[in-house]
Amino acid sequence: MAGTPTVAKSPPALIPPAGPTPGGTLPLSCIDKTFGGSGFVSLIQVFPPSSLSAAHNDEGTAAVVAAMRSGFARALVPYYPVAGRVAPSGLAVDCTGEGVWFVEAAASCTLADVGGLECSPLLIPGELLLPRPPPGEKLDGVIFMAQVTRFTCGGLAVAISFNHSVFDGSGAAQFLTAVGELARGLPAPSVAPVWDRDAIPDPPSSPPPPQFKFLTEFRLVTQVADISAASIQRVKDEFRQAAATSSGEGCSTFDAVTAVVFKCRALALAAALPDDAEVRVSFAASTRHLLRGVLPAVDGYYGNCVYMACVARTSRAARELALAELVGAVREAKEAVAAGFADWMRGVGRYDVPLDYSTATLLDWSRLGFDEVDYGFGVPGYVCPHDEQVNFAATLLFVRPPAPRRGGVRVLLRCVEEPHATMFAAELAKFA
Questions:
Q1: Could you tell me if 168 and 35 are in contact, meaning their C-beta atoms sit under 8 angstroms apart?
Q2: Is 196 within 8 Å of 31 (Cβ atoms)?
Q3: What is the percent of the chain where pLDDT is above 90?
Q4: Active-site positions?
């Protein structure tokens, strides 16, 4: 590839619902309102040319994009709140029926020229791939945007930005699954959407907001590590053997990989922290199962159902404990979610995880469903979140590895500074 790749974008266009939809205003839940300040979440679904040619043969890109447009328009009928706008108060959605912003684009390079969009950071500026409204249009209140970028090899990148006030990750993936089903010609989504935000009662007093005592800007290094299926199974086996005399239970892939990353990071930070300093991994835990009996229907609900859990140990313990014991610590943190969420819903608990260098925040994207969305030309070969690379929070993101290396977990890392990056990479490499 000669020179820096460019992307030519068509003017953004609104895709409105394909049929009549209700008007009015719908309230957001107390959980939605908590995450409203998070703004937009963005991700990129990568479709290599092989998947497109195998599914469509001589159908052109125009037909592919037309089917996607139709899928969005049809999905916005049952998902009509998504076609509206978040009210200026941030407390509700105005069902205006305006639609979602959609951008078509063409890149000057092949997917291979930019590493298949698998590199972190990307080899092409992310803003070239992400959708935005036309100049002069306010971003405030927009709920959903999409951009389809065609590469010269025939591959596609579908970039999505969604408003965290309206969706969590599982909810956004549910909506995109419906778009794909309708783009493929199904008569209706396989899962009927459920709004029902008002069924979640507001606490007697508003849940306390997160308490960030101070924010420090770090010089975080971007890294990528692949944890192999064999290494994950080894950790699971170690935990099962350690638990044989007690519960005899197994552990999940999430438990195993979180323990690995927790230990490797503690080892990398050994010289920076005293032995008795607390090190933590906070992670977003789903609370959908805790809302059964509260929501009329949990299946199909696409609002926020998330609570931040935290596993903590002293620096020395995190370094010296066996992985099986750290798996147990992760499981304890997960088991504490029900009580912590109940307290938060009563207005007596708070998210109180400090944003310091001792704490890493983890999001698991590997099981949300974005990897299984099929717009009519197969599922993505790779899906990666795209963040703004803020430097006041150390972050870990679990994603599914690209298609040829499926089976393990890829970890996208911005959680250590340069002096600790080499050791961190070396420790993680033991689990590749």
A1: yes
A2: no
A3: 80
A4: 164, 374
